[in-house]
Design a protein that fits this description.
heterodimer, A: Protocatechuate 3,4-Dioxygenase, subunit A, 2 domains, 5-stranded mixed beta sheet, 3 helices, 13% helix, elongated, B: mainly beta, 4-stranded antiparallel beta sheet, 1 helix, 7% helix, globular
């Protein structure tokens, strides 16, 4: 992969970039890259429990063939607040099944997966159900994200299509008292053909440095 | 022949019916005022029964704090707190009542004079409180950290931070020197109550514990939660010494008896996670690891109980009133 710095270097060699400064080209490239870095806001935290279970298996496939519920692919990228991608993050996720029940005896709909070299992660699951006896608690996926030299992030992903929001999560997010900000509510993309429809959601994660 | 079989069947059933009628008795009821309900959601903890079993305190649906004498059901006090109350806890003897409000401030009331003894300044919202048995310390758990204050001076003594998340339950040891926390990362941590220095960590539990209580000799810590069991933990080493047989529902509340022989454990119905579905209570005999008495009423939301004179008093909520049962 050609790096941003290599492109700048080529531009300088080929004359499409001129540096009018007493500092070296390398120092100028570094300063330019630093300036281009997007300063990111940390992902808002949310409650961890109460059904977190330690020692979840390392897997990005939470859904088994024939599982009831709408298949869902969740993907995203892990950053820190300076905009650097975190290629050494560990993302742990757990959720209810389609019927709103957690598996506390085993590890169904529980897993952990590392981010890749570009900070990307992806897992396959189903859209979680509402708790059977508390329909005002929105469908959600729990996240515990850790990375060396960064504060652990405990948060939850919510879905803009949740009936609780009545189509307007910006306005109605607080109907679920555990949601303090609409930033954790993500739009849902429906894809596939009518016989094999599935949902896709992007959820970027941003960790604070220690 | 048929009559004989029916007679034999009745005879076979009679001892069980007799046993049940001897072990669980309805003692009384406390009617809530018309239009008032009680939120029995797990956290913030809005309901407390003191260990001595003499008082029940509740934050009700209109954010009024109501305190009743037990078992008479006589109203001891109604407090209209501002800002609204969020969590509360009675001391073991019921003589103190700590109320955390929505601003994070905590007021500690003397329940004889109904004067505020101590007002602790606002901090992060508090979901769970504990008062040490000697009435000298107060612990409050909120999002991301737990605090300890000296109630005699008002001094803030310590802040302890679980690895991530919050503490679901707090308990002081009977001698008031240790504070145990059931943390969201599934660990049970025991701290020196005054300094906040970590004394032990029980990290063998896979699922989060939602209730904990020290044995009255302070040598054991009973914990339970989503794993549906009761683990007996050594508070000094963090080692799990024993685990009682697993049940079908999540364990939500635990009370250790004063004689050290029993634990009252209250469970959700299977596959139900939220109150008021706590409808099963078991009285465990610790020595034999067996259930002495089972209370199972699906229409009753069990809110807690207390041991008193060798009996366990169980309080449940149903149809707008608290009902008190004696379990022996």
């Amino acid at each position: 992969m050609v790096t941003r710095r290599a492109i700048l270097h080529n531009c300088l060699v080929l004359g499409s970039l001129t540096i009018a400064s007493s500092f070296s080209a390398e120092a100028m490239f570094a300063a330019l890259q630093e300036g281009e870095r997007q300063l990111r806001k940390p992902t808002p935290p949310n409650a961890l429990g109460p059904f977190y279970k330690r020692l979840a298996p390392t897997t990005g496939t939470l859904r088994a063939p024939g599982d009831p519920g709408l298949p869902l692919a969740v993907s995203g990228q892990v950053f820190d607040t300076r905009g650097d991608v975190l290629s050494d993050a560990m993302i742990e996720i757990w959720q209810t099944d389609h019927f709103g029940l957690y598996d506390v005896d085993g590890y169904r709909y529980r897993g952990k997966l590392p981010s890749d070299s570009s900070g990307q992660y992806k897992f396959e699951t189903v859209v979680p159900g509402h708790y059977p006896d508390r329909s005002q608690i929105c469908q959600h996926i729990h996240y515990l994200v850790t990375a060396p030299d960064h504060k652990p992030l405990v948060t939850q992903l919510y879905f803009a299509t949740d009936p609780v929001f009545e189509g307007d999560p910006q306005k109605n997010y607080s109907r679920d008292p555990s949601i303090k900000t609409p930033e954790l509510i993500r739009p849902v993309l429906l894809a596939g053909d009518p016989q094999a429809i599935h949902a896709e959601v992007r959820f970027e994660l941003c960790l604070e440095r220690l | 022949m048929q009559r004989l079989l029916v007679l034999m069947a009745l005879l076979a059933l009679t001892p069980c019916a007799y046993l049940n009628s001897q072990t669980i008795r309805r003692q009384g009821a406390i009617a809530l005022p018309p239009g008032v309900s009680v939120t029995t959601h797990f956290l913030p903890k809005a309901l407390s029964i003191c260990r001595s079993g003499q008082r029940l305190a509740v934050i009700d649906s209109d954010k009024t704090v109501r305190v009743w004498e037990l078992p008479s059901g006589k109203v001891a006090k109604t407090l209209d707190t501002r800002p609204p109350a969020r969590a509360l806890e009675l001391s073991d003897d019921g003589r103190l009542l700590a109320i955390a409000d929505e601003s994070g401030a905590v007021s500690v009331w003397n329940t004889s004079s109904w004067q505020i003894l101590r007002k602790l300044p606002p901090a992060l919202p508090i979901s769970v409180l504990a008062i040490s048995p000697d009435d000298h310390l107060l612990a409050g758990g909120g999002r991301f950290d737990d605090q300890v204050w000296d109630l005699t001076t008002g001094e803030h003594l310590a802040t302890v931070r679980p690895a991530f998340g919050n503490s679901m339950a707090l308990s002081f040891s009977p001698d008031s020197t240790l504070l145990a926390t059931a943390d969201a990362d599934t660990a049970i941590r025991v701290y020196d109550a005054r300094t906040g220095n970590l004394r032990s960590t029980a990290s063998d539990l896979l699922l989060e514990s939602l209730a904990l209580d020290f044995s009255r000799d302070g040598k054991s810590l009973f914990v339970g939660g989503a794993d549906k069991t009761i683990s007996i933990v050594d508070p000094l080493t963090g080692k799990v010494r024993d685990t009682l047989p697993k049940q079908s529902g999540t364990l939500r509340r635990l009370v250790a008896s004063t004689d050290g022989e029993q634990i009252a454990a209250m469970y959700n119905l299977p596959d139900r996670f939220e109150e008021p579905s706590i409808s099963v209570a078991l009285l465990w005999d610790i020595g034999s690891r067996s259930v002495r008495v089972r209370f199972d009423k699906p229409d009753v939301g069990i809110v807690g109980g207390a041991f008193q004179n060798g009996r366990f008093f169980l309080i449940g909520l149903s149809g707008g009133e608290f009902t008190i049962w004696s379990v022996q």
